[in-house]
Each structure stands twice: as C-alpha cells, then as structure tokens.
Specification:
The protein is mainly beta and 142 residues long. The chain is 10% helix and 27% strand. It has a domain of 49 residues: Thrombin, subunit H, CATH 2.40.10.330. Strands 2-5-4-3 form a four-stranded antiparallel β-sheet, with no helix packed on it. The protein has a two-stranded antiparallel sheet with strand order 1-6. The protein is elongated, with a radius of gyration of 20 Å. The C terminus is likely disordered.
Length: 142
Amino acid sequence: NPLSFITGTGQIIPGLEKELMGMEAGDSANITVEPDDAYGPPREDLLHEIPLSQFPASRDIKPGMKFQAQSPNGPIVIVVKTVEDDTVTVDLNHPLAGQRLHFDVKIVGVREPNAQELATAAGGCSCSTESPDNCGPGCSCG
C-alpha cells in the first residue's frame, strides 16, 4: 500500500526522506538508511527498572514480551529485557534503534499538499472527517 507523507514535517525517518528528495513519479530505488539517520543508536538512558507490581498480575512477565504504553508523543512499545525478583527492566528504545534499514521504493505520485493536509501535518488538526464535532484548536473542518 502506498505511504503518503509531506516532506519536511518529520512524518518519515530523515534518512529516507533525504534519499527520496528529487525523485519523481515512476522512479524506483533501493535505499539503505544508517541508524543515525533513522531511529538512532540504542540509548542506555531508555532502559528503566519498574516494579513487577506495575504489570498485570495475570501475566507471567518474561524477557522479550512487548507492551504498549502512552508517551507524550503517542504510543510506544516497551520491551521487557530482564525480570529479576520484583524488578522488571524494560527498554523504551524504538524497536529499530541501532539497525540499518532497507527500503525498496517506487514513487507513485508527487504533488503539493492542500491546506487541510498542511494543518494536520503541523499538528493543528486532530479531528476526523467522520466526526467534525471532535475538532480541536486549529481545525477548520467543523
């Protein structure tokens, strides 16, 4: 399925966006993006110890398990690294941190964004067209 994005808005990783710039509809490429231009290297400061009691009592927590949590920037995946006594060490790094990424791309279209797309990309609109009564500040659809 095609992925639509607006350049310069941080919607895709910087290394991929840089390689796509200047491409036109019909162009294809195999692109490799190094970790520093993708999700960065794994960071030690994103390893945290959490009391086992913070996890669902019904679950047998084991290394490798994944949980979803909410951050100020949206949902994140938390990976259990170790379980020792009453402490769980979790990794908040992006699952692809430290990895070289490979993309096989084909540009299916290039166009200028419309005003609604620009407002949404800039974070000014978080509503859906199905429910315009949920419009927030900066929205013009309601």
